[in-house]
Automatic annotation (TrEMBL):
Component of the U5 snRNP complex that is required for spliceosome assembly and for pre-mRNA splicing. Signal peptide: none annotated. This is Protein AAR2 homolog. InterPro entries: AAR2 (IPR007946), AAR2_C (IPR033648), AAR2_C_sf (IPR038514), Aar2_N (IPR033647), AAR2_N_sf (IPR038516). It comes from the Eukaryota.
Length: 409
């Protein structure tokens, strides 16, 4: 850190005081993590903006590390935040610190300053790239009600009143004890009361045997729900096919749940950081589903130009920071993210005459970087692998030729 920046952060930077933290506890902020020493009291010179504070208790006897917990907080200039460690819970205390106690610490800042670690400024630029679209309001909206992002959420059995009742999808997977088949409630047209019988899938059998659990109150992440139905109510078979090929309708519904379109990229960044730093597998699944949705749209690329411009910049930075074993899985096993990126690039090049030149240049550079750094193969985008080969579907005056492209006959 240069002297000018250091002087500025000494004056304007935030301070996070964490009292009573046991020695050897894993503590970190943003992408940096340490094991604390006995005289550790917190972090100083925190650049104003959003930050992710995280920690894990470490057993003195065995050295076992507990699942990571943490929270996101937007530090204003000169903000002074104080938290306490709860020895019984081996976690951050739920008790609020009184204003008098905070003021006493402020007045005694010169004495505790030597026990405060400076913010690791070398990670600041990368952190800003990874969190550029996460506002303080969005972070609060997506975080659990209790404010804590946990790698391991406490699960409780659902009470009878919480269990779904009269749910057709639940009823449809109840096996017949003799035939091991299920009866659907769908009646054949013209045959009153007729039942259609189908076999239970292995996945449905496994799902039926699992206990009904739900996160403890206040601990569940509050991600935006991805629409289960990919088409508007009352759609014709041809319209349903169109909405499966181009999922702009689903993206529209998700964006409508945010204050502005770019917040969908903020949610993509939030879920990625909860996975990368917070070790949340639930967050990783939601991140993956968001990437799949954004890559499965056609009209949205033109409709939400700024969203896709930031999507490319965001996912490029995220892939750079992704753990090596996940990248290896994407490359070696042709993971769904790799496949969806291929679909997305194919869609872009089919529509390149309509796409903004700056966005197209950014996408071309992204492909070149992926190819150079990770040796990912994006040649032959018009060629299909065995499981990707399209099925021609004729409807009205259109023919669907792949997952993204619909050409007029």
């Amino acid at each position: 850190m240069d002297q000018e920046t250091a002087k500025k952060l000494l004056v304007e930077g935030g301070t996070f005081v964490f009292l009573g933290v046991p020695q050897e506890t894993q503590f970190g902020i943003d992408m940096q993590c340490w094991n604390t020493e006995e005289d550790f009291r917190g972090i100083k010179m925190i650049p104003p903006g959003l930050h992710y504070v995280h920690y894990s208790a470490v057993s003195k006897e065995t050295g076992d590390i507990s699942p990571r917990s943490g929270f996101m907080h937007y530090f204003d200039k000169k903000e002074f935040v104080v938290k306490m460690w709860d020895k019984k819970l081996e976690d951050i205390s739920k008790d609020e610190i009184s204003e008098e106690s905070i003021q006493r610490l402020k007045d005694n800042l010169l004495n505790i300053d030597k026990h405060l670690a400076p913010y690791p400024y070398e990670i600041w630029q990368k952190w800003k790239q990874l969190s550029s679209q996460i506002t303080a309001e969005l972070a609060q909206k997506l975080s659990p009600l209790n404010g804590l992002i946990r790698a391991s959420v406490d699960l409780l059995p659902m009470s009878d009143k919480d269990r779904p009742r009269g749910n057709k999808s639940k009823q449809s997977i109840e096996p017949d004890p003799v035939s091991k088949e299920v009866q659907s409630d769908d009646s054949t047209p013209g045959q009153s009361g007729a039942k259609r019988v189908r076999r239970i899938t292995e996945e449905e059998k496994e799902q039926a045997m699992l206990p009904d659990l739900k996160p403890a109150p206040g601990e569940a992440m509050r991600f935006t729900e991805i629409p289960k139905e990919k088409y508007p109510p009352g759609s014709t078979p041809g319209e349903i096919t169109k909405h499966y090929l181009d999922q702009t309708y689903s993206l529209d519904l998700m964006i409508a749940q945010h204050d502005e379109p770019l917040h969908i990229i903020g949610e993509l960044q939030f879920t990625y950081l909860c996975f990368l730093i917070g070790h949340s597998l639930e967050a990783f699944e939601h991140w993956k589903n968001l990437v799949i949705l954004l890559c499965s749209c056609d009209k949205a690329i033109l409709k939400y130009r700024n969203v896709y411009f930031n999507f490319i910049k965001t996912i490029e930075t995220q892939i750079d920071e992704m753990p090596g074993d996940f990248l290896a899985d994407i490359v070696m096993n042709k993971n769904v993210i790799y496949k969806k990126l291929r679909y997305f690039f194919r869609t872009v090049f089919v529509n390149k005459k309509k796409i903004d030149g700056q966005l197209l240049s950014l996408i071309v550079r992204f492909i070149e970087n992926l190819t150079q750094k990770l040796k990912w193969d994006f040649t032959g985008l018009n060629d299909y692998e065995e499981d990707e080969k399209p099925v021609l579907v004729l409807f009205d005056d259109f023919v669907a030729i792949d997952e993204h492209c619909i050409l007029s006959l």
